Automatic annotation (TrEMBL):
Protein name as catalogued: Metallopeptidase TldD-related protein
Domain Metalloprotease TldD/E C-terminal: 218-440
Name of one Pfam family that matches: PmbA_TldD_3rd
Source organism superkingdom: Bacteria
InterPro entries (UniProt xref): Metalloprtase-TldD/E_C, TldD/PmbA_sf
Species: Pseudomonas benzenivorans
């Protein structure tokens, strides 16, 4: 048996035996074994490894609950001692706390087990290929690879275990003038040819950055949003767009869609797709996750419901995170071939990346942001010049609705690049989007 799994099971068993009458617990487990490499000018600047594991213990009694996180040593006797100390401290704190009216402890004894431990290349092989393929380029990037483990156990008999290996190479190619092309290659199966192709595409775009930049007057322009740019739009939409709490409190940017006052494009299909993703099949709150159809042919679908929202609004919890944002977002592709994007765009904006996005009018789903990294002016289906950084301000009901002309057949997988405290396991799988209008404001 997997050693980490065996130790987690042993700790959960000990905790169950140590409970006093009337007490319940939930126990979350998080661990990783990761290699990290930082690149500068296509050479290794920093390399290292991280091995860490932690527990999140929640003690519940009489409607009160308290939590504590503890780092694990990997030595069972020592970790059992740390867990006993945490349990003792929570018992002392619990009587001092008021009851939580929205505490919802799941008493279903569900079981979940998932192993996606694919073989990854040796870190030295990746470094060698990056250095060879990017020779002569100013490549600045970050490589992270290895396994991520998540576990959950509770006094109700629920138990979940999830382990998945993955890699993520996030990089930029810098031109001598300071402009850059940003790209990512991520997944569970490293393919040397796929990385070489992705790098070649970035190198081709880099050549255009030496041309004089084009500034445009404010107005509407045809535009193509590459998958990375579309990801920024959808991540902003995830801030309350599918949240049961935000919708119940009338604070969702998609409130008008759910009330029938506005519509999105019938081309649009969005899903929280846990199946096949790196996301565990259970939440940190102890609920099984399942695939959710968030938008179907432009029409509103299911909501992301956390345990607290379920208790407050009388809804069935579906394993959403406490912040009720998508973590394994998938958009269906369309019929536009990637090779035909410039031809179909004809004249307009090719936008590789966006940044600084925010809502300019949240109830109206209006967003604003800036173009960035490898965005170009296109004429007659050919790139003519890099685009100077421009601000846009437009409604999601236009960008993903009336102005959405086509989606690419090919889709791009992006894995979360966050490493704050630990590597994250969120993902998106998105096509590119051709728009017959995007409003630039300055």
């Amino acid at each position: 048996m997997n050693q980490a799994l065996a130790q987690f099971q042993a700790l959960a068993q000990w905790l169950g035996d140590a409970l006093a009458p009337g007490e319940d617990f939930s126990l979350g487990y998080a661990a990783e074994q990761s290699d990290f490499v930082r690149f500068n000018q296509a050479r290794v600047r920093q390399a290292g490894q991280v091995r860490q594991a932690s527990l999140e213990l929640q003690l519940i009694q009489g409607g009160r609950h308290a939590e504590q996180q503890l780092t694990l040593s990997g030595v069972l006797a020592e970790d059992r001692r740390r867990l006993a100390e945490a349990l003792s401290q929570l018992r002392a704190i619990l009587p001092l706390l008021p009851p939580d009216p929205y505490l919802q402890f799941n008493r279903e004894p569900w079981q979940s087990h998932s192993l996606q431990l694919e073989a990854l290349p040796d870190c030295a092989q990746v470094v060698e290929q990056v250095a060879r393929e990017a020779a002569g380029l100013d490549l600045v990037g970050f490589y992270a690879a290895g396994s991520i483990s998540r576990g959950f156990a509770s006094s109700s008999g629920a138990f979940g275990w999830h382990q998945a290996s993955s890699f993520n190479l996030d990089w930029s190619l810098f031109h001598g003038n300071g402009q850059a092309v940003k790209a990512q290659y991520a997944g569970q199966h490293w393919q040397a040819e796929a990385f070489a192709t992705r790098l070649a595409e970035a190198r081709e775009q880099l050549a255009y950055l030496g041309l004089p930049a084009r500034s445009l007057a404010p107005g509407d322009y045809r535009a193509y949003l590459a998958p990375a740019a579309l990801q920024e739009v959808l991540e902003l939409l995830g801030w309350g767009g599918f949240s049961a709490q935000a919708l119940a409190e009338k604070d969702s940017p998609l409130q008008r869609l759910h009330s029938g006052e506005a519509r999105l494009s019938p081309l649009l299909h969005l899903q929280e797709q846990v199946t096949g993703s790196l996301l565990p099949g259970f939440s940190s709150e102890g609920y099984p996750r399942r695939d959710l159809q968030l938008i179907r042919a432009g029409q509103p679908g299911e909501q992301l419901v956390s345990a607290r929202s379920a208790a407050e609004y009388g809804l069935p919890a579906n394993g959403a995170s406490p912040w009720e944002a998508p973590a394994a977002l998938v958009m269906a592709g369309g019929e536009l071939a990637q090779a035909q994007v410039l031809e179909r765009l004809d004249r307009g904006l090719y936008i590789g990346n966006l940044w600084y996005l925010n809502y300019s009018d949240r109830p109206a789903a209006r967003i604003t942001g800036m173009t960035r990294f490898a965005s170009f002016w296109v004429e007659d289906g050919r790139i003519q010049a890099p685009l100077a950084s421009m601000r846009f301000d437009d409604s999601l009901y236009r960008l993903l609705g009336s102005r959405l002309e086509a989606l690419t057949r090919e889709r791009e997988l992006s894995l979360a690049t966050g490493t704050y405290q630990q590597r994250h396991n969120g993902s998106t799988l998105l096509p590119g989007a051709l728009l017959d209008g995007l409003t630039l404001t300055l």
